[in-house]
Amino acid sequence: EYYRNGNRSRYQNAFSGLERRFIFTTLAEALENEGRFINALNVELDRFCDLKSWVLPAHDRNNGEIYDGKAIYSDLGSTLAAANVAIAINLFGDKLDPKVVEKAKAEIERRILQPYEKAVREAYSGMWWVRTVNNWNAVCHACTVVAALNIVESKERRAFFLAGAEYFSENYFYKGFTDDGYCSEGMGYWDYGYGNYIYLGAAARNAT
After folding, report:
1. Which residues share a beta bridge with 177?
2. Alpha-carbon Rg of the chain, whole angstroms?
3. Sequence-distant contacts of 59-64: CB under 8 A, at least 24 apart
4. Which of 13, 63, 144, 182 counts the most CB atoms within 10 A of its CB?
5. Region for 35 from its dihedrals, namely left if φ exceeds 0, alpha if ψ lies in -120 to 50, beta otherwise
6. Using one digit for the tens of pLDDT, what is the confidence trace for 18-59?
7. Predicted structure pTM score
8. Cα–Cα distances in Å, from 143 out to 13, 66, 76, 137?
9. Is 172 helix (H, G, I), strand (E, B) or coil?
């Protein structure tokens, strides 16, 4: 529909609804911690992992090449989804169905972590946000790092994601601010981008 008439909201509302279901289920289980929501969380995570794409249609270039399986890269929506899935897996991985856990980790690897590693090492063109100065840099780095910190077992590999976020924020994201600290994208994006940068900093501090 987006490519037919430019409507973003219908898909994004449905996508966000699916995402909120497993977020709220995760929060509910975290509050009670009695196992009452584990079965529901298994269902919601499995359903979410089955989606053809976590990338928002407006960010899926060339008439849906990711949805059609012709390319792979991440965006604002997919990195946030990966972070939320990874947190749920980290919190309740020992209670969830092992097949769901394995599936979720594999999808985060395929959709988010491996493309990021390729982008850092090879300057993969599909991941333009790694080397941009706008809010995408902070938001996608924050969510990618949170996903990595929650599911990657190797200490050295986790450090790779932290180091990448540090380098590309210092050398790119910072340049999006004027001398007075203002963001050329406007106050709303200043809040969005820098807010996620603070989130990134908190995640790095907690992990180290």
Report:
1. 183
2. 17
3. 63/3, 64/3
4. 144
5. left
6. 999 999 999 999 999 999 999 999 999 999 999 999 999 999
7. 0.95
8. 20, 19, 8, 10
9. coil
